[in-house]
Q: What sequence folds into this?
């Protein structure tokens, strides 16, 4: 890999548009990886909220389940482990990155099977446990794939196609999971819905197992597969037990503090959301005064975070504020769009079609336009287009709420939503990829992409409480406005310049 280059949050310099396009095999690989990560994401998010709504769970409790999506926000905590350690067995033959991906896919499969056999939701803590495990292994898969992607495609021009391919796979999988799971649930039940998607999510595993080893001439494929599977089962069992113990402790503490579905959690959520900014503001002066070689001399666990704060200094605060608002509309739409459709009286068959062909076509078009914008336009212009598209994707649900229920209304709203957020997502991934240092691509991208969803997902957990106060129409007006508000940070963000070590 080449020597570390300086990343900038301003519009990328001319050199960032240079470099050969990624080969088709790389685009195909990231189409597959995006697909394998997108399937489970919808199952612990939008499909789960619809499942809970159909079982008559209170909207405030459904909102609390959206906090499971906070787990990817903190992926920077264990991202350095993926850069430093290898999975026994798998990594010996297929390499570190693919080893983690294969372990993650086993975790995804078993977690989804567990969710299938607890699909009656009679025990909400048990439902939450398996949803958290599914979110954890899905996020681990994304961390391994993101670090590899940035190493393979270091320039903005190269990132555009590979991000588009990855998001095509990701969003097509989300559509397949949403539409397919809902349709199977309509025909059979939620148990079969989760089992079918679990089987589909596991399909990439044998494909990866059949791929060539990391080093030419390596032998022992069968032994690596058997050993890796045994070690994976031990790791998965330990992770499940640890999660159950921690979850029991957190739940007991929350109940002991008197929190319930009737508690107004919105002020608490907003106060928590401010804490990272306060901590950064306190730490930045000291980090800014460090010598240029200080991050390289620090332990590997903290060096990537100190390095990005050192490079951007005080400019990191508006940058992080900007990324916190930019995906607001996407997250909040995903949290309550399906309960909204259920409350508006749409059937599972209609929702399945909206999440299927309509969403797939429009999402793919949005991703393609977003990737083209990111590769061809100044980053400022591309980001503005994405923010506007996201806001419109939220506001269209206000029209749906007041319109007479019909298939046409549902499909138009779903199509506008998927196009807008697909476009916004493609632009955003390229923007974040340009901020990281090539020395720490996986860890820094995990931090930035995780932090970007901290505020939206914190608010998403309070979405049910907010909806009870201002209604579905007020909720989607607010969520679109918050996404649009990211534009007002751009004059500050685009002036930021990174220091060179």
A:
């Amino acid at each position: 890999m080449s020597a570390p280059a300086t990343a900038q949050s301003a519009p990328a310099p001319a050199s960032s548009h240079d470099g050969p396009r990624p080969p088709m095999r790389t685009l195909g690989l990231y189409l597959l990886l995006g697909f394998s990560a997108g399937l489970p994401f919808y199952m612990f998010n939008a499909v789960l909220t619809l499942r809970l709504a159909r079982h008559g769970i209170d909207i405030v409790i459904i909102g609390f389940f959206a906090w499971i999506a906070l787990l990817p926000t903190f992926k920077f905590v264990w991202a350095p482990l993926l850069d430093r350690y290898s999975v026994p067995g798998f990594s010996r033959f297929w390499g570190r990155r693919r080893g983690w991906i294969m372990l993650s896919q086993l975790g995804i499969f078993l977690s989804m099977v567990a969710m299938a056999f607890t699909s009656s939701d009679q025990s909400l803590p048990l439902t939450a446990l398996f949803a958290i495990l599914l979110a954890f292994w899905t996020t681990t898969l994304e961390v391994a794939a993101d670090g590899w992607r940035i190493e393979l495609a270091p320039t903005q021009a190269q990132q555009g196609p590979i991000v588009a391919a990855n998001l095509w796979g990701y969003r097509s999988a989300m559509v397949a999971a949403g539409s397919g799971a809902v349709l199977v649930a309509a025909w059979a039940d939620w148990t079969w819905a989760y089992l079918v998607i679990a089987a589909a999510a596991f399909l990439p595993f044998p494909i990866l197992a059949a791929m060539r080893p990391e080093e030419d001439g390596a032998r022992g494929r069968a032994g690596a597969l058997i050993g890796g599977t045994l070690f994976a089962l031990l790791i998965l069992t330990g992770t499940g037990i640890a999660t159950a113990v921690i979850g029991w402790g957190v739940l007991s503490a929350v109940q002991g503090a008197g929190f319930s579905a009737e508690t107004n959690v919105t002020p608490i959520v907003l106060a928590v959301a401010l804490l990272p900014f306060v901590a950064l503001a306190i730490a930045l002066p000291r980090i800014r005064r460090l010598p240029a070689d200080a991050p390289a001399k620090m332990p590997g666990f903290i060096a990537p975070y100190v390095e990005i704060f050192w490079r951007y200094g005080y400019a990191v605060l508006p940058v992080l504020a900007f990324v916190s608002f930019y995906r607001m509309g996407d997250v909040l739409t995903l949290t309550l769009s399906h309960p909204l459709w259920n409350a508006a009286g749409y059937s599972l068959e209609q929702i399945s079609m909206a999440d299927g062909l309509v969403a797939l076509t429009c999402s793919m078009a949005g991703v393609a336009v977003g990737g083209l914008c990111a590769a061809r336009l100044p980053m400022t212009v591309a980001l503005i287009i994405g923010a506007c598209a996201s806001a419109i994707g939220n506001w269209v649900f206000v029209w749906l709420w007041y319109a007479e229920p019909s298939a046409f209304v549902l499909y138009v709203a779903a199509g506008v939503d998927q196009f807008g957020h697909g476009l916004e997502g493609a632009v955003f991934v390229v923007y974040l990829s340009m901020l990281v240092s090539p020395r720490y691509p996986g860890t820094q991208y995990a931090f930035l992409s995780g932090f970007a969803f901290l505020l939206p997902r914190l608010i998403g957990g309070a979405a049910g409480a907010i909806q009870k106060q201002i209604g579905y129409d007020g909720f989607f007006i607010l969520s679109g406005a918050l996404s649009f508000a990211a534009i007002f940070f751009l004059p500050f963000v685009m002036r930021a310049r990174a220091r060179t070590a």
